[in-house]
Please model this.
Amino acid sequence: MATGGMAAAIALTPVINASVPKDAKTEAKRVVSTKILAEMRSPSSLASLKLPNIETSSWHSSSQSAKKIKSAIKKEVSYTISTKGNVRSNLVEFSKQVSETLNDSRGWSRIGVVFREVTSGGDFDLILSQAELLPTFSSGCDAEWSCRVGKSVIINDNRWSGATTAWNDAGGDMRNYRHMVINHEVGHWLGHGHLNCSGANNPAAVMQQQSIDLQGCAFNPWPLDSELWSTTLGIVL
Model:
């Protein structure tokens, strides 16, 4: 009897539903979110916010440093200067103007090369020769023009002192002819062959035979952008 009475009492005990209405939950979430957002926007919160410290990986830093070092290094090419036979031109002036030409920012230095004159053992030999002696270097050389044979870059003294009819008739000046003939013959040593005029009034390639015929091009003593490479030095741009 007592057991039944207790069961009845338990059965009669009201069940209290502790759940919050759905609308009330939604409203509570909205209030909390608004409060958090307001705190995040406050100046004091932003001031205390610390960004993660992202370190550059060592391999990336090394790679970038190597690139900077590589771009700052220029390949050095050495050359000797001498004469052959009776030359009329001043050798001191020749040496000075050769260096100016080879290291001019408009010339072959653009492939990343510094040219340095040495007394012996140069990478190539620059020879100012009596015109009549040019054929003694090779059967392919002519007393009329300058020439290149192996590591010998031979400048015809007549051309150095007077240029050519084609160049003079086109209005070219003496200093630019000297720039051109040095760049042209050294260009052969660098691995270049001859080129033709690309179109009327276009600047001639420095490897065009401008001493002989401009072919409608304008005289130009400096290598074109398309000529900035060297198979001899392994430089391809």
In short: Confidence is low (pLDDT under 50) at residues 1-18, 56-72. The CA atoms of residues 78 and 123 lie 5 Å apart. The first strand starts at residue 75 and ends at 84.
